[in-house]
Amino acid sequence: MRFLLVVLTGCFLLGWTAACSDSHVDETERRVEELLQQMTLAEKIGQMNQVNGRQLDEQMLAELRSGSIGSILNIEEPSLVNEIQRIAVEESRLGIPILVARDVIHGYKTIFPIPLGQAASFNPDLVELGCRIAAKEATEDGIRWTFAPMMDVSRDPRWGRMAESFGEDVWLTQVMSLAMVKGFQGDSLNNPEAMAACAKHFVGYGAAEGGRDYNSTFIPERQMRDVYFPPFQTVIEAGCASVMTSFNDNDGIPSSGNKSLLDGVLREEWGFDGVVVSDWASVHEMVVHGFCEDDKEAARLAVNAGLDMEMESRTYIRYLEELVAEDKVSEAQIDEAVRNVLRMKFRLGLFEDPYLRRYENSSAYAPEHLDAAQEAAEQSMVLLKNDMDLLPFGDNIKRIALIGPLADAPHDQMGTWVFDGEKQHTITPLAAFKQMLPSEFELLYEPGLSYSRDKERNGFSAAVEAVQASDVAVVIVGEEAILSGEAHSLADIDLKGAQSELVAEVSKVGKPVVLVVMAGRPLVIEEEVKLAEAVLYAWHPGTMGGAALVRILTGKVNPSGKLPVSFPRMKGQIPVHYNHNRTGRPARGTEVLLDDIPLEARQSSLGNTSYYLDAGLRPLFAFGYGLSYTKFQYDDLVLGASEIGVSDTLNLSFTLSNTGSRSGWEVVQLYANDPIASVTRPVKELKGFKRVWLEAGSSQRVTMKLPASKLAFWNIDMEHKIEVGAFNIMVGGSSEDGLEGRFWIVEKL
Ligand code: GLC
What we know:
With 749 residues, the chain is α/β, with parallel strands linked by helices. Helices cover 31% and strands 18% of the residues.
C-alpha cells in the first residue's frame, strides 16, 4: 500500500510539475497576448526597433517615452542603464522594459581566450564556465542580451572573423556553441544573472568568398544543411533566445530578407520562437546589395521574411506604419514579430525586475574569474613542436631572453571584440615571468620590435645581445588584436612587419628558440617553425594569457590544446580544411614536389592527382593536432559490433596509454567516413571527442559511442538520411592518423 502511495504521489508531482511548466508557458503567452492587445501599431513597431546607445541624446529619450524603442545596444555607461530603463518603465504609456544588449563575446571584464582559442581546449565545460562568468559580470552592468556565440563554421583563415568562430569542424562548433549558450543563459533566463544568447550569424557568413569579410557566399542547400545549419539547430533546440541574421548574400539573397531561411527553416522547420534580430544595418544594406530600391522596400522585405527586430538602420520605425497602411505589410505580420520580442522580455523577467543590480563590489576580475580565465588559456594553447624536449624548461635553463612585440602587449593579448576588458588587468608574459620565475632565473627582456607591424630593426641588436647572454630565447610574435575580427580580412597571413626577420636573427645566435604565436587565426609560419626548437600557439589568450604561458613553459601545466583549424603551409593552399571530399583523383601523399621535378618532364609524368606542386596537399599542421610533454599511445581498438541498425549506437573502446614521464590530458578524437554514398562525402568528419587524464606510465580503456544518427546527411534526394552500408572510423590524437576500424549499418539488425 505504502509503495502504491509513493508511486501515486510521484505521478501527481510529475504531472503537476509538467502542468506547472506548461502553465508557466501558457502564462507567458497569456501575458504576451494581453499586452499586445493594448498596444497601438506605433508601439508595436517601437518594439522592433534597436538603437545604438552610443548616440543617447534627448531625441532618443523622447523615443523611449513614446515607446518607439524596444532595445538599445552599446550603452557605454552602466549607470545610465537604470535611468534609461526607468524612463521606459515609468514614463512610457505601457511601461515595457528595454532589452539592453552588447557584444560580450569572450568575456566582459575578465577576458577569456578568443573563441577559436577556447575551441582548441576541446573542453565545453570550461567554455560554459567562461560564459557563465561573463554573464555574471555583464548582468551586473545591466546587460541582459549578448550577441554571442558566433557559430559560423569558418575554413578560410584570411577571414578575420575566424577568431570569433570555433573553427572548421561542424561537430566541434555544435558542441562549443551549445556550451556558450548554456553558460550565458544558465538554467533559467529569468535569473537576473542570466544573459540571453544570440546564435549568429545566420547563415553561412564564414564562407565569404576569398575570406573577404561581407563578401557573397554561394553555398548550395545540401552543404548549408550538412555544414552551416547544424550548430544553429543544436542551440535552438536547446533554447537559445535569439538569432542574428548575417550580412552575406547567399546565392544572391541577403539573409535579412530571406524568407525561406527565416520563416521557412527557423520557424517552420525548427519551431524557433525567439527573436530574430538583424545585424548592424543589415536591413538597410539590402539596398546597397542591390536587392531592393530603397529603405522602405528593405523594411518590407525584412519584416515579411520574418525579421523581428532591426539593429540600427531604423527602416522599421520609419516605414512600417506606412507599409501597413498601404497593405504591403499586414499588422498580423507585425504582431508575430512583436510577440517574439515581448516573449523574450517576459522570459528574461524584465517586467518583474528591469533594473540592474550593481553590487557594491562588482565581481569583475574576481580571483575565481581570473583563475578560470587562466585555466581556459592554459587549455587553449597548442604545442606544435618540441624538439629535444626543450620544453618544459629544465634545470639547465637559468637565463631566459624574452623577445618579441607580443611579450608585453596587454591590449593586443586580449584579442578582438573586447569592449569592456581593461588592459591594466592583463597579465602579459613579461609580467608573469617577473612575478612567477623563481629567483634563480635571470630574465632579459628585449622586444626587438614595438608592435606586430613594426618594420624598424633598430631593436634587433639589443635582442640578439640578450639572446647571446641567455640559455634560451622565448620569442613571442603574432598579430595585434586589430588585425583579426570583423572587417579585418588579410590577403597575406604571414607574420607582419619584420617579425620573421627578428625570428631569423634570434635563431642565428644558436641558442634554443621557443616560438610563441599570439594571433586570431592560423598564420603561415612554416619557415619560422623550422627555426625554432619548440612552438606554442597561444591564440589571443586573454587577461591571464601571460600567466598561463609561463606555467606551461616552466612545466607547471602540461599543454593539452588541439587545433580547431588546419594550418596552411602557404596561403595558396587555402582552403585546406581536413573534412574535404575525396575527389576522383585524391593525392597519395607521395607526389613529386617542385624541387624534385626532373627537367623536361613530360606532361603527365608527375601523376595526375589533386595536390599543389609547390605545397603538396597536407597542411603544415592538421585539425585536431597538438603535442603534450608526455606521449600517448593508442592500442587495441575494439568495435562493439560489426554491424548496427539505423537506430542503434556503435560502442567502441581502445586502450590509451601514457608512455611518457608526465601526467597529462589527451583529447581523444573519433572520426567517421562514409566511403560510398548517394553523394560524395568528406574523407572524414569528427563525430566525438573527450579529454582523458592519465598519470605517467598508466593506461586506461577508453569507451566512446557513435550513434548511427550522427552519420545521417542530406542525400541525393535532399532527405536527411543514414544510408546503409560500410563506414570507416578512426580514433586518435589528431585528424591525421589513428586506429582504424570498419563497421556496417543495416536497416534493421
Ligand atoms: C557587428 C557584427 C555583429 C555584432 C553587431 C553588434 O557588425 O557583425 O556580430 O554583434 O554588429 O555589434
